[in-house]
User: Fold these one by one.
Assistant:
Number 1:
Amino acid sequence: MTDDSTDSTSSAGHRERMRSRFLAGDEVALSEEAILELLLTYSIPRRDVRPLAEALLVRFGSLSKLLETDPVELAKVSGIKENSIALLKLVAQLTGEGRRPETRTPESPSCDNLPEQVPGSSEKSSSSDAAIRTKNVSKPAKSPDPPKLQVSNGYSLDAAQNARLLSYISEHPEVRRFARRDVMEGTGLSEGQVESLASIGAAIGLVVPRTQVLTPFGKLVTKHDLFLDSIITLEFCHFLGAGNPRNLIWFMIFNDLLAIEKPTDQAGWSAWVREKLAGQYSEGSMVKHIAHEVRFLLDAYTVKNFNKLSLLIETPDKTLGLRRYTALQPLSLAAMIYLIGERHQAGLVPFTDLHAEPGSPGRVFGLDPSSLRQMVELLHQRGWLRFEVRHGLDQVRLVDGFEPLEFLAAAYEQRSPETTPSPDSEPERLLL
């Protein structure tokens, strides 16, 4: 008996490509997330295991620490059963448990810092740049970049400053990699503000990490909602920010603390995160940066733009809980579902991946399966996808020709989505 018996034959091609890339020595295939995902396919043969691999690395910090973990602790993780535990411990035994070199560097500087590269450089596009233009490539959740303890760098989400940054970038489409000093001169922002806004922008899918060029989604937002006022923008930015394990504290709070634990106050948030990350970072880093990130999230969702979603509910004793968000816009949800399909490189998405998995719409918006099911059935009625039962399991079948970005563009332009993208948007089907 394997750990999971869910039928998902559409993932066979993805697994075959993973094995081929690994055997070919592809750099991305040698990342810790990719190695762990490939490893788990041998103990969980019929389910997408990428979310589980990501969750394990977030929880334990690195692959070597995961392999060193006691089986009793591993058994506490949802989705991990005896076969997977036995396989992990077998690998640990064969590798000497801790001798595999660490690839995660929590104490290294932020990898979203702007490089000192002059505008208009002829330097070739980075791998992130190429990912915008290549269909069926790995998305941020598959990135070899380690989780970031810092996203805000101590700053808050300032819509006006963010608009200045996005405007400046959009005015220089020829630049492939922005220099920090040029952005500072062009926007009038300080170095700290530029670094923070670039990091936050990357976290919510508006700019590409390291190069800081606009993503296709960033271009769409710059054109239609520069100040991040639209509910469409806020819903999708929340999904990208809270749903990406690379945004470590953001992801932990919305997928674990708010979704599973009892409501607590701001101090409780910080204490909970410190407990979960104990031993993975220096005490000084955790005391400083966790407080900054918790304050950033509370400010963003109770004072700044994300407050419009009313996702956080505060009780009289100042504890904070996740409010069930039942107002999710149909076109926003459709874009999220199609993005999940692209990430998994599959045209068939199990319904459980939409509400139970970390980073899923149901998880980060606090939706129960029944409410989410009604929303998906509405998309089915509109012909944007097919909601069907296969082998006794609810699954979503994506319709050929629809793209995530097209659903968002249709929402901004108040029209129905089209299956055939217009010529000027065709090269930018992928969001990130």
Number 2:
Amino acid sequence: MTEFTWNGVRSRVVFATGSIDQIPSELERLGVCRVMLVSTPGRAKLTQRIAELAGDAVVARFDRGVVHVPERIAIDARLAAKRSSADCLLAVGGGSAIGVAKAVALTSDLPVVAVPTTYSGSEMTPVWGATAYGTKRTGRSNSIPTRGH
């Protein structure tokens, strides 16, 4: 038998038809009440539906997610979260939106609730990526708490 040690990622996954309807109860379960929605510009319709579900908990929206998380986007998203006093990030979309939420969580310890619309796998891992000065860096941080819907 091969011996190994595994440190699991802090995550919770709710996988079911219509699971986005459970977002309010998941936010309540986390004890959060000031949510920043994170998305790409192309997810406006779904983001609006989720904003309606989350109701008054939505205090900010950041819809500028792009692939490989350019450093300028990460900085702007971090500032938006700080200005709004968000206590949770609700990422809607694929790896671009989830990556931006992770970039914020990496420096703030805010939890990430992800509503993936593609299978990037980003919602299931502690791996982050960012691009600065034309160079992409990646890393791992178990301090990025994620929950997938």
